[in-house]
Specification:
Blueprint lengths: L2 E5 L5 E5 L4 H9 L8 E4 L5 H13 L2 E5 L2 E5 L7 E2 L1 H4 L9 H8 L1 E5 L12 H9 L3 E5 L2 E5 L7 E3 L5 H11 L5 E5 L5 H12 L3 E3 L5 E5 L7 E4 L4 H14 L2 E5 L7 H9 L3 E5 L2 E5 L9 E2 L11 H9 L4 E5 L8 H8 L3 E5 L2 E5 L8 E3 L3 H13 L3 E5 L2 H4 L5 H7 L3 E5 L1
Parallel strand pairs: 2-15, 3-14, 6-7, 10-11, 18-19, 22-23
Antiparallel strand pairs: 1-23, 1-24, 3-5, 4-5, 7-9, 8-9, 11-13, 12-13, 15-17, 16-17, 19-21, 20-21
Helix pairs in contact: 1-2, 1-7, 4-6, 5-6, 6-7, 8-10, 8-12, 10-12, 11-12
The chain binds ligand EPZ.
Length: about 425
């Protein structure tokens, strides 16, 4: 089992290029199912989750070919509209096949995603939306079974903002008969990136990026060439690591327009942040000040950055309140950070982080993707060696992170 070994205490410095966004690439890969013409996608990150999604598509009969510049997907001969338990249990985002399969093939069988480390994560809103569009949906032997001769446009209100729910229904609606209105839709940049890819394929969508998305269904979609946006959570993770170590870094190919909430909080913590075009420069000339955050749907502060900011606050001056409002069990990293000497109390969905002068290296365990990123940041700050177990969690969302942090001066290595 691979682990990460980190010797902390080095302020990060230098330049790093931000990779393509995992949470945009995954839905965009499934969009290939909507058309019989090839889809060419560039800037797809080299991640375990992306490999799992390609495996899932290939299992359905999609032809996939990857080269240096991107991925070619050809869904002209899909034979088996099924997302099996074996793959869905490793990656919940497989549920994103449900909408496209039902819309194009009139049938889909997708294993019902179970809960995960960060919460129960139901998909009831995905199902309710498809039913509103006229699909017959049943849960049978652990599988969601959806059937529809042709989906019909509908007004769909989602009482909770859901990112993949919005994406699934937007894809389904793009081939439905008539107009669909998605109300209380997610406004995340990844939803907008998917909408732009669908529009490049011939879909008629407006309002993406607002809480009301309108989709005029079409008979069929074409192929397209599309480039995935850069990853705002990866960018935020590098910036938080630089701030926590008192370093100065430059990010290139960064999705600057979608980093407002993150940069705002880093400035509040005392970082000097300059942006120009797709470049972000951050310098942390002093010890960070504690900064309180409350997670919320976009454009609020992203839940996928909550753990990294808890790590930053562990060594900041003062006490921070970090409130998690999206997922009910997303403080698994707190117990592990305490092993490094962090002082954190949890009350309900708020963590009270009392900054300490120093952390000390220890063995810790990753429990989910972003929790593992917070342990990496704490390890970069801690004195001595920190060893992180179960780093397969990290590989799901960060491409070769130890190499890129190593180029910023970190003393970090993957060890078996
Ligand atoms: C997406 O998950 C992201 N994953 C998550 O990133 C991210 O944390 C999350 O959005 C919130 O920003 C991908 O895009 C692949 P939701 P998603 O549906 O779509 C409740 C990472 O670290 N809900 O927006 O699964 C749900 O329980 C991952 O990269 C329902 O009640 O999240 C949660 O409390 C982790 N019923 C809330 O909505 C539903 O049908 C938001 O979840 C759907 C969701």
């Amino acid at each position: 089992m691979q682990k990460l070994s980190i010797h902390g205490g080095v302020p990060l410095s230098g330049e790093v290029r931000v990779a393509g966004a995992k949470n945009a690439a995954l839905p965009i890969l499934t969009a290939a199912l909507l058309s019989a013409s090839p889809l060419r996608i560039a800037n797809v990150p080299n991640l375990n989750d992306v490999r799992t999604m390609i495996q899932l598509l290939q299992r359905m009969g999609v032809k996939a070919r990857r080269d240096q510049r991107g991925i070619d997907l050809d869904a002209s001969s899909v034979t088996d509209p099924v997302a099996p338990y074996e793959l869905v249990k490793t990656m919940r985002a497989s549920v994103l096949a449900l909408g496209p399969l039902t819309a194009r093939f009139g049938e889909a069988r997708v294993s019902l995603p179970g809960g995960c480390a960060i919460g129960e994560r139901p998909v009831d809103l995905h199902i309710k939306g498809l039913e509103a569009m006229g699909a017959e949906v049943s849960i049978d032997a652990g599988y969601i079974h959806a059937r529809a001769k042709r989906l019909k446009g509908a007004r769909v209100f989602m009482d909770t903002v859901t990112v993949t729910g919005t994406e699934n229904l937007m894809m389904a609606a793009s081939l439905a008969e008539g107009e669909t209105v998605l109300e209380n839709a997610a406004r995340e940049p990844e939803v907008v990136d998917l909408a732009r890819c669908l529009i490049a394929m011939g879909a008629r969508i407006r309002g993406h990026g607002t809480d009301e998305i309108v989709v005029e269904g079409v008979e069929r979609l074409n192929g397209a060439d599309y480039t995935v946006m850069a990853d705002r959570i990866e960018a935020g993770t590098f910036l938080a690591a630089a701030a926590a170590t008192g370093g100065s870094v430059t990010l290139t190919h960064a999705p600057v327009e979608s980093l407002d909430a993150i940069i705002d909080k880093l400035r509040e913590a005392g970082a000097e942040v300059k942006t120009s075009g797709d470049t972000v420069r951050l310098a942390m000339p002093r010890r960070a000040r504690s900064v309180s955050v409350r997670t919320a749907p976009y454009p609020g502060f992203p839940t996928d950055m909550q753990a990294q900011f808890i790590a930053l606050n562990c060594v900041a001056e003062g006490t921070a309140f970090v409130t998690e409002t999206i997922f009910e069990n997303r403080f698994m990293h707190v117990q592990e950070l305490r092993r490094l000497g962090a002082r954190i109390e949890i009350e309900g969905n708020t963590a009270f982080v009392h900054g300490v002068d120093r952390l000390a290296g220890a063995r810790v365990m990753a429990t989910d993707l972003r929790a593992s990123a917070s342990l990496v940041i704490a390890g970069l700050v801690a004195e001595g060696e920190t060893v992180i177990d179960r780093i397969y969690h990290l590989d799901r969302g960060y491409e070769r992170i130890e190499e890129r942090l190593g180029r910023l001066g970190a003393r970090i290595a993957r060890v078996s």
